Amino acid sequence: MLKASLLLAYININTPPLLPVSRKDLLILLTEITFCCPWKPLRLVGIVKPKTMTIIGIAGGTGSGKTSVVKKIVEALPPNYVTVIPQDSYYNDTTGLTDEERKAINFDHPDAFDWELLIEQINELKAGRAIEQPTYSYLISNRLPETIHVEPKPVIIVEGIMALVDKRLRDMMDLKIYVDCDADIRLLRNIQRDTIDRGRTVTMVMDRYIKVLKPMHEQFIEPTKRFANVIIPEGASNTPGIDIVCKYIERLCGVIE
Question: Is this structure's pTM higher than 0.90?
Fold first, then answer.
């Protein structure tokens, strides 16, 4: 009995395979073929199917360019192939707190996140079930009543400053990415974003950076770099690095152009 591993192989479609697989599976996957007799049709012996879902974690300091990297990855994969779960949507519900207590929240500390809900919803997506993703407003420092209906897709990207902090979440990931960026560039991006989107003044942003962002980054975010499979310096401007990552993800997901 002669065996050979082939990238593509012609299978006699009139001969039922030993495993119930589609023609698409046969055309795009590595298949081990057994040549039983030269005068008999080839029959499928085994097949490696693509993962039903690939989970990717993308972390990095605030203003490092994570969102831009996520956009590049989404654009590189087939349409409607990716669901992005922003960690910012999973800050704790602060309904029972006063306005002063809400304003005092340290959004750059792991305790600010509802890890249980995030992990629960990732597990739901992994199981093929849709979720109602919470929404959060920095203006009122609380969740909004509206939710976002999210359907499971072949690729789930969890993106956020602390996406790699929780071990339970890391253990669910097939690929862990850290987006690295110089501190001064991150500060400038924070000033631009927070003054426009979050109603803060430049003085407020600078004060928060010195008292909160910088020490929290050094204590909680920067150390997660050691958990990353891939580190992308300079964020979305690192075109070669992102191209390499996208090609790896395509292979990881079983996408063949």
Answer: no
Q: Spell out the residues 6+ positions from residue 239 whose beta carbon is closer than 8 angstroms to its own.
A: none
CA-based max dimension of the chain: 82
User: At residue 83, what is the residue type?
Assistant: T
DSSP letter (8 states) at residue 186: H
Q: How far is CA 73 from the centre of its chain?
A: 10
45-54, 89-98, 114-123, 223-232: the lowest-pLDDT one: 45-54
Tell me the helices (H) and strands (E) count for the chain, helix number first. 9, 10
How many angstroms separate the first and last alpha carbons of the chain?
A: 33
Q: Which of 227, 228, 226, 216 is nearest to 183 (CA)?
A: 216
Can you spell out the DSSP letters for 83-107? EEEEGGGGBPP-TTS-HHHHHT--T
- Strand 230-233 relative to strand 175-180, pairing: parallel
Contact of 186 with 67, CB cutoff 8 Å: no
Residues with Cβ within 8 Å of 169's Cβ and at least 6 positions away in sequence, in order, are 57, 115, 118, 119, 122, 158, 163
Check the CA dihedral 116-130-165-68 and report its sign.
Answer: negative
- 135 neighbors 120 (Cβ within 8 angstroms): no
Write the burial class of residue 64 (CB in 10 Å: 0-12 exposed, 13-18 middle, 19+ buried). Answer: buried
